[in-house]
Amino acid sequence: MRLFISYAHDDEEAVRAIVDLLRVGGHEPWFDAWLLPGQDWQAELLKAIQGCKAFVYMLSPRAVESAWCQWEFGKAVQMGKKVLPVLLDAGTPLPAVLGRTQFVDFSMPPGDMRYARATAQLMGGLTRVAVTVDEQALPPLPDPTGFATHSNIVRSVDYDPEARVLSVGFPKGALYQYNDVPPEVYRDLAAAKSRGAYFNKHIRPVYRYRRLA
Fold it and tell me: Using one digit for the tens of pLDDT, what is the confidence trace for 8-45?
């Protein structure tokens, strides 16, 4: 079964483990780590959602807050796709639109016996657990291409997907260029509730840079 995997970038390690399980079980999971530089991400995401048989929503506090995840979920619901919620973090505030929907619980570490039960549930019950969500219950969809209107840390952001170069302007006029930044990192920066906090945690200490101005 072809599956669209919706997740927050911070959860990628846990998500990849579940994706591997799905692949072993004969499913065909798709997630945006496979997007290529230069592609129109939004168009490619829509195409992948349209082509999937079920939408797997990897739920964590990061995913619930992500404008991109909310947008992907909303589009899947509008297309009438079956939705399978997978819980990654026990402290996740579940979206109201999912109501009392059954979910597969992967919030425990892999060595826990409950993880094995969750694996069995995921592998054997995808079609039974996945549900259709009422489109009328959806909140308004966010615009994942937008940025916050202001930030005390980051003033401007520009990205070249072909060169994988991220240019960041700061309030006092400095401009820095960060190299080899993956498109999904730029995507998550664009969708972050706090661009400055995301930049300080996931970009500033990770990628090589040079000052341009």
Answer: 877 888 998 999 888 888 889 987 655 544 446 677 78
The kind and range of the H/E element at 6 are: strand 2-6
Look at the block and give the residue holding tokens 């498109």: 183
pTM over the 0.90 mark: no
Distance CA 62, CA 72 (A): 14
- Helix or strand run (H / E) with residue 160: strand 156-160
52-90 per-position pLDDT tens digit: 989 999 999 988 888 788 889 999 999 999 898 999 998
Residue 18 and residue 136: Cα distance in Å, rounded? Answer: 30
Q: Given its phi and psi angles, is residue 164 left (phi above 0), alpha (psi -120 to 50 degrees) or beta?
A: left
Domains of the chain: 2-137 (3.40.50.10140), 156-211 (no CATH)
User: How far is the C-alpha of 193 from the C-alpha of 94, rounded, in Å?
Assistant: 18
